[in-house]
Amino acid sequence: MLSKFWFISIFFIFTHQIFAQIDSLQRKNYTAVATQNAPIIDGVLDDQAWDKAPAANNFVMYYPGDGDPIPETHKTTIKVIYDDNALYIAATLIDKNPEKIVRQFTQRDNLEQSDYFQVDINTYDDGENQIRFAVTAAGTRADAKITGENTDFGFNIVWDAAVSQDQNGWYAEMRIPYAALRFPESKEQEWGIQFLRQISHKNESYTWNYVNKAVGQMSQQTGLISGIRNINPPTRLSFYPYTSAEVDRFDGETETNFNAGLDVKYGISKAFTLDMTLVPDFGQTAYDDVELNLGPFEQIFGENRAFFTEGTELFTKGDLFYSRRVGNTPIGFNNAQREKLENEEILENPVRTDLLNALKVSGRTERGLGVGFFNAVTAETKAIFRDTITGNNREKVTEPLANYNILVLDQRFNKNSSITLINTNVTREGHFRDGNVTGFLFDVFNRSNSFNVTGEAKMSNVNLAGQNETGFASEFSLNRTKGNFRYGISHELANETYDINDLGISFTNNYNNFYLNTSYQIFEPSGIFNQYNIELYGNHQRRYRPDINVATGGGASIFAMTRDRFAFGGFAEVNSAFKDFFEPRRENTFITYQPNITGNAWISSDYRKKLALDIRSTYQVFGENSRERFNFIFKPRVRISNKFLVIYGFEYDNEINRPSFVTLQPRDIIFGNRDMRSFENSLQANYNFTTRQGLNLSFRNFWSVAQFEEDKFSKLNKDGSLSAVDYNPEENYNPDANFNIWNLDLSYRWQFAPGSEAILLYRNSIFNQDELSDLDFQQSMDNLFARPARHNISLRIVYYVDYNRVKNIFNS
């Protein structure tokens, strides 16, 4: 009821301002000039096409200061021209000390510490959705999709850029084809645009249009580009055929595979694009950072498949889309072991479902309505059992043919606000589980961008065999979003049947939580600091049904960066006793964990230097049984040259005397006192011959052991307390674990043409898990290397085909 009262009150307070137009600040306006002769993109600005173009200059400081004019020693001038095919941008970036220009060779989308020039284009001028193009002084290109404060560098499109350098500074040229943009049907285009220059050795950045960091977001404060008239862009149709071959050797057996497939990108209109993947191949996606997981929740991983990361900003609204659900573990995978008959063995039980095809359509109309549709189909998956007496085989479907769908309608207005309707649906063939979730979201700023109201209402429906379950969840927050001093309150609620896990990810439900925060930050240098932010926060968590207290806590955090780019920070928290309803693995039961205090501190040195260092440490202590936890991360990075970068990572985690779940018995839930420690060593090394060719090494070894103290087992009581019980792991389930994993990737990547690349990849991986928790690190490694190693080498080639170029070749 309280969340409804907040919503109604605040909504009416803001109603009179929602549909008002934002006062236009003093926006700079640039008029582009048409050209009949496109410039050659070589980084040398000697083409006659640039002569008639006006200059955009008078850049002002964006960081660390606020609006100071760029010095004459770093004068910056931009020119923009266009034709029927593309937009062309030239940048003259003066530097009176050219030897200080930072030119670090990196691969695409990795700006590192280089000087760079950046262009943000918002073709709908809606204050939120824009495309970012950047090129470094070394020639590395980067592109991203910007949605509000989210920057997605997984968004890759085909465009071109080149740079040059002389005694006066450096120069950049860009060619941005209209195929890379979506824009409204209009005789004259008016787009939001922002130019930014990063001067790394001075630790300064400057923008063309002034950005007030104390108000709103950078995307809401672009300049304007006009004069682009009567453009007749070509058909936006491109193909990405690929072929791949691999040789895999494991445990004395060798397998070879050959795959071929196709990705298609088609501009349905100037505003909407169809992306489709046919016969997808994800064989070269990065390894997941798998860890020993003894908790009640599944481990989640980032998305490594390009199709599910490029242009997906509409589909992630409301956090209802966890893309790893598509092609994930079959829903009946764990049941296969339980359904094995007495005389059977499992011959096959695939851990992944195969993705047959996927497509997405997305775009935005000139009135600000974003529309997105996503569909994917995964194949039927079966487990195969063999009768060891008769020799007969039988099959069991663990995941039927499944269809995944998302539909999104997202209306932007006032250049700072939006309302969204989203539906996700998973339909499985036959009598299997289906899921459907619908969400309504709003994100509204007032006229001056000083206050923000956000809210979500989501309804889930799960269709199980013989029954349906409907759930509900809501979120509401009110935040001060202007000035040095800010604050906010929020509320989250979900009933006990809320479930979005067919296509989304949600660990908990049945909650009724309240949060508040207040902070103070600076936007201009003060004393030795370029920036700092101090925050106080608190929370009160309750069970929705029955209405009982779960926990209350609060804390403070700080982030600071000095003028020398030395950053540090940390937090301190105090939390009350906590009723954990998920660790027991049985409904309507909980274990009570005692109050705890947590402290964290970290430092990060200047990445511009040859040697830089990141250190982080966390300590947590509980008011029970000497329970504590310590975590330490050490991550040095060495830039051996502008082409060679090495990053080593070490992480140590040690948890002592944690009351942890062991097993379920017919009447009792068994807990034990667990010690758990882990070591992680990782290495990232990149050697770039050019900005389009490079070697990459990625290595990770993670070792973790969990050991339960002898004769310290308990049973869980109804009031959340524990009482001693006689439990013998040797006669029952032994919860001790020794987990060790080793992954190594060595790849050579060559971008041999725009949009085209070849990747040669060697992989080496070993895995071992057992109950030998008393082994030390060396003994565990010896056991690991006694296991068979998997060796895999693969070659994947993707070639970009532009329909217009092919058409012109055939016409000629």
From TrEMBL:
It comes from Salegentibacter mishustinae. Pfam families: CBM9_1, DUF5916. Coiled coil: none annotated. GO terms for molecular function: carbohydrate binding; hydrolase activity, hydrolyzing O-glycosyl compounds. Residues 233-810 form the DUF5916 domain. GO terms for biological process: carbohydrate catabolic process. Signal peptide: none annotated. This is Hydrolase. Residues 41-195 form the Carbohydrate-binding domain. Keywords: Hydrolase. The keyword Hydrolase applies. The keyword Hydrolase applies.
